[in-house]
Amino acid sequence: MNTLPQPFTITKIVDENAVTRTFILDGALAAEPGQFVMAWLPGVDEKPFSLAAANPVSLTIAAVGPFSRAIHTLRTGDALWLRGPLGRGFRLPEKMTGELVLVGGGYGVAPLRFLAETARARGFPVRAIVGARTSADLLALDALAALGATVIPATEDGSVGRRGLVTHALADALADGLPALVCACGPTGMLAAVGKLCDAAGVPVQLSWEAHMRCGIGLCGSCERGDGWLTCLDGPVER
Amino acid sequence: MTLSCDFLNFTLKSPLVLASGIIGTSPALLTRAARAGAGMVTAKSCGLAPRAGHPNPVAVDWGGGVLNAIGLTNPGADAEVPLLVETRARLSPLGVPLIASIFAGTVAEFAAVTEIICRAKPDLLEVNISCPNVRDDFGTPFAALPETAAAVTDAVKRAATCPITVKLAPNVPDIARIAAAVVAAGADAITAINTMPGMVIDPVSGKPFLSNRTGGISGAALKPIALRCVFDIARAVDVPVIGTGGVCNGRDAVEMLAAGATVVGVGTAIHTRGVDAPAKINAELTQFMAQNNFGSIAALRGRAL
Ligand SMILES: Cc1cc2nc3c(=O)[nH]c(=O)nc-3n(C[C@H](O)[C@H](O)[C@H](O)COP(=O)(O)OP(=O)(O)OC[C@H]3O[C@@H](n4cnc5c(N)ncnc54)[C@H](O)[C@@H]3O)c2cc1C
Ligand SMILES: Cc1cc2nc3c(=O)[nH]c(=O)nc-3n(C[C@H](O)[C@H](O)[C@H](O)COP(=O)(O)O)c2cc1C
Ligand code: FES
Questions:
Q1: What architecture does CATH give domain B5-300?
Q2: Touching check for A43 and chain B: CB below 8 Å?
Q3: Does this model's pTM top 0.90?
């Protein structure tokens, strides 16, 4: 399995919100939605990022610390090295009766955008619940709508869409009629709550988890979650 | 026909041994490898003090094998003991012995770590004198010379309350001499080999990929080197050998046994074939034995010698 880091050139940078940018690169990867890459800047660091799209390769990155800020200093024409695609992504059924409901918090929307694209290409109806603290923190609403998803924003301050957490909006959606499948990505607490709601409703759910990644290829053990689950090899999507 | 085999005073359900450093020292992960068919499992090497290891990037699969420089990440000997105790408790109902692994910077420190780790009562203690990824006072010097390898072996043997196996490096002029020296100093078994020093360089940036710049080669690229080392060791000494390096499938395991290994280490195959790699390799080994009329692992041993 050759996963040497490959250099890509940044062709376009889209500002998603005050701290988040989508970097569109000059190539494609044969990947499934939910898979991630290890992005490398020589001499700086290497960290995992979900694919927001695979053709062209796109990464949606929030500037929260040293490495993500270093990536935010890159400009069109600069290089970014990617190792991957890695891990196991979301798995869509062959046929689906009912809706695919996506639940994303923060940059967790990134892999859901790729998943929405794949699901829409197969003609599946998609409802995307996108959560953030305020309207200024929301991202990818237009991109999801352009893919043909029904987009339901949820903000904690009620500035846009439903006031409250994405889990409240998910509870509404479950009450509307049971979806065929729920797929979620976001902070740990949100994922745990989404998992609980879906289990209680008897709806199949796939959750994309985060962990501290080092090797990214199932050898070092640093990304263990729960009782012996390797996020980079068994996940990041638990399905 | 059976995969069950003897190693020292243990009877193992399979000749496959999870190699040190692969998926760390988590009780749950080591137990998972045991449930997946490993006959013994080895914990990650542990030193006296905690170590975070090297910054990312720490590993890459370049297509022919894996290069890694994790940097001996470990919680330190005192914190390692409860992890080993829990692991042993989980493994014992499965009939899978636990090998603890240690490293240190000086001979005296090797003895100190041994004393602490033996409180966890591991079934076997592996002495890592051969990690290529930690420069200066760790690893390489001890495995490079018969005298230093023997000095560490002697100190660990005196402090240990369980049998010891010494893990050798491939990048020495004459590995048989090192093997003879550690056996003379009291090694009950030998593990061979650790990774081979190497580099991966990105041609576009011109930079080494790993933050440590150099790393250790494992996986497919290491197999011919490991076979030669095990072959030389098996001809030089009489102790059992954990033959490790590049074993990815059943045929590789058969080759390693033929080279003189008593049991077979499995590391990088966890990356290429998943955590249940031992189950897959066990199945392939069984099939090979059935097709070629071998009734036991013992019958496969040393055929190349
Ligand atoms: C499978 C996987 C997929 C990922 N996908 C993405 C992705 O698509 N986009 C993306 O931006 N990041 C993603 N990450 C996170 C990313 O790998 C880094 O952790 C992140 O960029 C922070 O690294 P840093 O060095 O900039 O900051 P650090 O120094 O590591 O973090 C700075 C501080 O910010 C906190 N923090 C980390 N991430 C966030 C965040 N997103 N929002 C708020 N606080 C945060 C940390 O806990 C820490 O306190 C993913 C992680 C995993 C494991
Ligand atoms: C990620 C990784 C970490 C390792 N950590 C250790 C370690 O802590 N101690 C040790 O003795 N060997 C360590 N090794 C070496 C392995 O135990 C083994 O000797 C080597 O990988 C060759 O076997 P393989 O080709 O089956 O992987 C490590 C190897 C890898 C790939
Ligand atoms: S990051 Fe190394 S095992 Fe997952």
A1: Alpha-Beta Barrel (3.20)
A2: yes
A3: yes
